[in-house]
Description:
It is built from eleven helices and no strands. By secondary structure, the protein is an all-alpha fold. The chain has one domain. Helix 1 runs parallel beside helix 7, helix 2 packs antiparallel against helix 3 and helix 2 crosses helix 10. The longest helix is centred in the N-terminal third of the chain and has 46 residues. The protein starts with a helix and ends with a helix.
Amino acid sequence: MNDFNDLQNRIKTSKHLDFGNILNDAIALFKKGWLQGFLMLLLQFVLILPLMLVVYIPMLFLGGLNFQVFDKEVASVLALIIFVLVSLFAILTISVVAFAIQAGFFRICRQLDRGENQGFDYLYFLKRKYLSKIATIMLIALGINIAAVLLCVLPVFYVAIPIAMIPVVFAFNTHLSASDIVKLSFDLGNKKWFLIFGLTLVSAFLSELVGVLMCGIGLFLTMSFIFVPKYFVYKETLGFDEDIVINEIGVTNM
């Protein structure tokens, strides 16, 4: 396990990353893991759809109430409180589930990158020991987004990149606190902002183009490609302990 300061230092002293190499590596890995990416998106849909329906339950409930028997002012306040509370809970739950499954996909990317072809656990992070930390991360990210919105539109555009890196940082550093994971994500996002932004645009364009060429339905098979370059940005910037040890052994034997 790496401590927070060591990981921060890796980001600060990281080398320049080549856009083309990252994209080529991402394409090569996606060829191995497109099915896992599709299953990740399918799981998100299956698990999140029922939660989205929860948001509409209070609407139906409130629509069926006879507000004439209540004081109009009291009834409107009651309706607003119920709707806000249920909606906030549903939105937080949806965010936690989507985040956990996405982090699980990054873990699978690591397995595929190492040549492992079995033992994939898409729900690895949907466990009690991770859920509270993920929920805390989601609340921190929400606070950052709200602050960015209050400042102006441009900060929202800027913080979107570091926030997008949070799942991959979390996936390989679950031992860190929620605040440290967010800080590392912003350090990484700020350091490689233009690279990540460019990779996101290109990967989104390629996934959509290939999906359309596959008669539209292929979009469901290619959408997950947008996540893969982020894995390689993390790998080439912070690295993994086993890779670092192998490199050190190789240098020693030269």
